[in-house]
Structure formats: C-alpha cells, structure tokens
Amino acid sequence: MAFCWSNASVPILGLLSLLLLLLLLFLLPPHHHHHDELHAPPPSAAVITYPLSFREAPEFRNGETCSSSLNSTIHIAMTLDGNYLRGTMAAVLSILRHSTCPENVAFHFLWVRHEAEVLSRLKSTFPYLSFKVYTFDAKRVRGLISKSIRQALDQPLNYARIYLGEILPQEVKRLIYLDSDIVMVDNVAKLWGVDLKENVLAAPEYCHANFTRYFSQEFWSDSELSRTFEGRQPCYFNTGVMVVDVEKWRNGNYTQKVEDWMVVQKQKRIYHLGSLPPFLLVLAGNIEPVDHRWNQHGLGGDNIEGKCRGLNPGPISLLHWSGKGKPWLRLDSKRPCSVDHLWAPYDLYRMSKHSFEE
Ligand SMILES: *[C@@H]1O[C@H](CO)[C@@H](O)[C@H](O)[C@H]1NC(C)=O
Ligand SMILES: *[C@@H]1O[C@H](CO)[C@@H](O)[C@H](O)[C@H]1NC(C)=O
Ligand SMILES: *[C@@H]1O[C@H](CO)[C@@H](O)[C@H](O)[C@H]1NC(C)=O
Q1: Which of 9, 288, 326, 330 could make an S-S bridge to 199, C-beta 3.0–4.6 Å?
Q2: Ligand 1 pocket, 223 CB below 6 A?
Q3: What is the largest CA-CA distance in the chain?
Q4: Among candidate residues 148, 151, 149, 177, the one with its CA nearest the CA of residue 162
Q5: Structure-model confidence comparison of residues 30 and 169, the more confident one
Q6: Does pTM top 0.85 for this prediction?
Q7: 198 CA distance to ligand 1 middle (Å)
Q8: Residue of the nearest CA to atom 12 in ligand 3?
Q9: pLDDT tier at 143, thresholds 50, 70, 90
Q10: 71 Cβ inside 6 Å of ligand 1
Q11: What is the CATH number of domain 11-346?
Q12: Rounded mean pLDDT of 157-177?
C-alpha cells in the first residue's frame, strides 16, 4: 500500500509559521529542563471516539534540484495508533511542508493491530503519501515490559522502536525514528544526512543532565550492573528522535542487547521509565551527537502533571511534546500552553478552529 506523493509547498504559510516561531522564541522565558525525558507515544488512556475527521493535506511536490534515484529516499519510521492519530497527522504534514524533496520521503508506520478506520483516514488525509504499514506483534515484548511511572509508557507500541531492524525490509539501511508528538520545522534531509561515523545511532545528547537519576539506587549500588558504563561517558538522550544505521543495528544484535536489560529490569528494578532506559544502558556515550535543535523536547511538561514549559534558547528544527501534556488535548481544553500554538498550524483535525484554512 504505497502511494506516491507530491508537493506544492506553501511559502507564505511557511514564512508565517517561522515568524510565529521567532516571535515565541523571544516572548517565552527560557527554561531548562532535564527532567522531562520521556519519549512521546501512547498518551494517557484517552480514548478517541470515532469518527475523527481530518482535512485533506495539500499535495507536496519535489523541488527542481531533487534527485529521483531510489537511494535518495528518506525513510521515516513512526508508530500508528488511533489515540495519537491527530499527532501523527500533524507530524507528517510538518515534515512534508518543510522538506525540499517531499516526494523522496517514505513513511514506515507500525501498529499493533489493523485498524481500518485509522488507515482510511491516513489515506484520505494524505492521498499522495508514500507509506507502508507494518504490524508490530505486541507479544514480542509483552513479557518484557515492566510497569513505569506513567501508564502511557507501558504500551507495547512504545517499545516497537527496538524492533525496527527486524520489522522494516532489509533494503532500509538507515532510518529516522520519530515520536508522534513532534512537529518538524526544518528540512528533514538535513537530519537524514548526519554523519553517523562508526556509530549505530545519532541523536541530540544532553551531557549536563543528571544521568544518575535515570537509574535506581539498586542499579548504581550493584557494581556488576553499573560496570556496563565503564569506559564510556554516558549522557542522556531522548529516544523520540533518532537516526539509526539499521544495518549496524541488525549486525550488532542491538535488539537483543536492549531486551537483555529489560530482562534484568524484570528481576530487579533498575529504572523507573519505559523504553528509554534500556536504550541508555546499551548506547549512552556511544552515539553520534546531533545538534540540540533537532529535539526541543519536554514541551509536554513532566510525566506527572504535564505543566507548561517554555522553549530552550537557540535555533529549533523540531519541537517535541514529550511528557504528559499533549498540545491537541490542551488546545481542546481551552487552556493551552504558549508552545502549543506552535503545533496548531499543523493540526488537520476538522473541528479545530485554530488551524489555518488552505
Ligand atoms: C546514489 O546512487 C548513485 C548512483 O548509483 C550514486 O552515485 C550515489 O553516490 C548514491 N548516493 C548515496 C547517498 O548513496
Ligand atoms: C543527581 O541525581 C542523583 C539521584 O537523584 C542525586 O543523588 C544527585 O545528588 C544528583 N547530582 C547532582 C549533581 O545534582
Ligand atoms: C549476533 O547474534 C548472532 C546469532 O546469535 C551471532 O552469531 C553473532 O555473532 C552476533 N553478533 C554480534 C556482533 O554479537
């Protein structure tokens, strides 16, 4: 079920959203948070009542400089979940809108079960999208999940990112994994083109964050376990935005390595979060750092209350509502945070009044 896709970018709207972004950058108080953490996904137990209806996105076409060779494809992997559909739609739109070569972007969606309504909405919202949908077998991970501090993090789909190497076809050698609560406001080709050097994964790295607190006292006091960080300088990274060399991931058995830590966690509580800590255990200190602009995370606030957060200073290419608060829920509740107005222009939900009309 792959479709072809094209683009007519909307320069004026692009410019307007950039201006809005810049305006907000100046208006919002800078705020450092190393607390948020957490990847995106499956939010609270909010159940979407169908029918959820979306406007059709415009057709986005390649610019003249774009190559049409097969190896110019940019592979993006995301999860697909009825509860997060509004976020997914906005994320996809934002990527295409800011892409110089939107027809070269191919999406790989993972879901845990076939949902005909989700699929038909995706197709009717993006009739030209190049995408494939894969089923992630929740059984693969069910026995390995330990309860975290936020129920939403315990959804099997949240763990699908560990299995991308085996789910995606062998010809996919590199991919960008993205959470569903992001919008990209820059050309995805720039992120795609990062030099991974000898590393299996690239992501923004936060070496000033207190790394200790991502693991329990039990972990740190067990010298055999904590020795895993020997010889590296581990730093926090967020698994909601990752560039992965899938070939290296497969050949290095990284899925197995991450799973091994989840087995340890089952026996002994070595961390409190979901799928993030085992990634840190395997890879922290051994990733290729990417500019922080590619994951302005924590906009959803903390994991407990989802309080409003401002933006960190500096340029931004990707906004990420990790944490408990999601922009579509806060906008609907009529008590949005300032940063949520940066998400609104990408909202294709039909009922919303805050989105633009073509
Ligand atoms: C894509 O393929 C062309 C022709 O085979 C080759 O010259 C080019 O280096 C390839 N580009 C990448 C990014 O692999
Ligand atoms: C880092 O976090 C740990 C565990 O929460 C705490 O004991 C330690 O004091 C913190 N270190 C710094 C430098 O804040
Ligand atoms: C990966 O696992 C396979 C099969 O268990 C094994 O043959 C291979 O040596 C492993 N590779 C690495 C790099 O650990």
Answers
A1: 288
A2: no
A3: 59
A4: 177
A5: 169
A6: no
A7: 20
A8: 252
A9: confident
A10: yes
A11: 3.90.550.10
A12: 96
